């Protein structure tokens, strides 16, 4: 039997606890270990120089934990961009992946898709394998030019996996048939990208059998992303949907429910919130708007004003000072209830 490689996964942001960001084989870093490592890192920061950012420090902690634990593979998710991201310190990654690209974090990455694409392309390294998901034409042109310049062996995953007509959600890509427990059509392309990356690892000599790939797909979970939960005897759909692309993916799933929905939404000021509302709202939907505790979010009254312009035929539209009164009001409806708009809002809900 082939022993699977130990794998560290570094992601951001967390939903409830900082330890979620650094996991080995699915287990979060122990709180005491994280505290010790962070103390070590902060102790060596020169006092007469500008301090690293919070993200830079936690990224350093992930790399230190990775090194000390002797993990064989590390999956490092970039934070805000790519080129100047704290995660982007490895000069010889086994494979780099750009899953998708939309107008997000434009305040720092640049106002246009080509600007953002140039920053994302910063993770590509000379001669290193790359897997690229479907991109808008303007962004694809930038990424393709960078790939050519760096001579990166690249796989462009344009065609998503296909769902198979059998019990449960099963998909097929590159001859591999696997379960797909995550909801939403967007997971077809995401799963195909993951398989493409694993196949590159196989080419590089990593012994990852197909049975392990199938088992891994079947065990995949993603908190806060098209996640149905039972809450106070009601079914509630959680989805971060924190940018336009995510909002569009959420709406695509909602359309399969063939029903008006009741939205409970809070959105950060830094997001493209008008276009997000355009993507989400439909005639007959109910909308309850809330602030995001501890974060600079769009005022619910401003969201309501714009929402009524975007979709004047809403079934109901109200603002609330706090999340849980809004959820209580939503429970009185007979339509599916969706809490979305920010990962921070989902995290706040989950930790209560």
Regions with little confidence, pLDDT below 50 for 5+ residues: none
Tell me, briefly, the overall form: globular
Coarse structural class: alpha/beta
Secondary-structure arrangement, i.e. CATH architecture of the largest domain: 3-Layer(aba) Sandwich
- Assembly state of the chains shown: single chain
- N- to C-terminal distance: 43 Å
SS strand fraction: 15-25%
CATH-wise, what's the superfamily of the largest domain? Answer: Mur-like, catalytic domain
CATH hierarchy, class of the largest domain: Alpha Beta
The tally of helices reads 12
Q: How are helices and strands ordered from N to C?
A: EEEHHEEHHEHEEEEHHEEHEHEHEHEH
Q: How many β-strand runs?
A: 16
Numbering strands along the chain, what is their spatial order in the largest sheet? Answer: 11-12-16-13-14-15
What is the CATH T-level topology of the largest domain?
Answer: UDP-N-acetylmuramoyl-L-alanine:D-glutamate ligase
What is the strand and helix layout of this fold?
Layout: E1 7-10, E2 22-24, E3 27-28, H1 31-43, H2 54-69, E4 73-76, E5 95-98, H3 106-109, H4 113-120, E6 129-132, H5 137-150, E7 154-156, E8 162-164, E9 170-173, E10 176-179, H6 186-203, H7 210-218, E11 227-231, E12 234-239, H8 244-255, E13 262-265, H9 273-280, E14 286-289, H10 300-310, E15 316-319, H11 323-330, E16 337-340, H12 343-350
Parallel strand pairs: 1-4, 5-6, 6-7, 12-16, 13-14, 13-16, 14-15
Antiparallel strand pairs: 1-2, 2-3, 8-9, 9-10, 11-12
């Amino acid at each position: 039997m082939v022993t699977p490689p130990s794998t560290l996964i570094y992601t951001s942001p967390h939903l409830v606890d900082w330890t979620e960001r650094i996991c080995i084989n699915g287990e979060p870093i122990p709180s005491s270990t994280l505290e010790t490592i962070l103390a070590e890192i902060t102790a060596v920061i020169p006092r007469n120089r500008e301090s690293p950012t919070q993200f830079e420090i936690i990224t350093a902690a992930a790399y230190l934990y990775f090194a000390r634990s002797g993990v064989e593979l590390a999956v490092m998710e970039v934070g805000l961009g790519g080129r100047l991201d704290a995660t982007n310190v490895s000069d010889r990654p086994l494979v780099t992946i750009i899953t998708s690209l939309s107008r997000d974090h434009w305040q720092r990455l640049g106002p246009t898709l080509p600007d953002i694409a140039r920053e994302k392309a910063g993770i590509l390294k000379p001669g290193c394998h790359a897997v690229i998901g479907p991109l808008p034409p303007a962004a694809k042109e930038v990424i393709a030019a960078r790939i050519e310049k760096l001579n990166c062996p690249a796989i462009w995953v344009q065609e998503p996996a296909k769902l198979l007509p059998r019990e449960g959600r099963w998909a097929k890509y590159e001859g591999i048939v696997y379960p797909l427990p995550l909801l939403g059509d967007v997971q077809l392309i995401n799963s195909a990208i993951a398989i493409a990356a694993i196949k590159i690892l196989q080419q590089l000599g990593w012994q990852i059998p197909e049975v392990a790939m199938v088992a891994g797909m079947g065990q995949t979970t993603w908190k806060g992303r098209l996640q149905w939960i039972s809450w106070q005897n009601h079914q509630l759909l959680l989805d971060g949907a924190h940018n336009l692309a995510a909002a569009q993916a959420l709406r695509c799933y909602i359309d399969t429910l063939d029903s008006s929905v009741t939205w409970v939404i809070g959105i950060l000021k830094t997001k493209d919130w008008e276009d997000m509302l355009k993507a989400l709202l439909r005639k007959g939907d109910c909308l309850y708007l809330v602030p995001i505790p501890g974060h600079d979010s769009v005022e619910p009254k401003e969201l309501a004003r714009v929402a009524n312009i975007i979709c004047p035929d809403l079934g109901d539209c109200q603002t609330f000072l706090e999340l849980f009164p809004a959820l209580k009001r939503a429970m009185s409806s007979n339509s599916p209830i969706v809490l979305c708009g920010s990962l921070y809002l989902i995290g706040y809900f989950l930790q209560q």
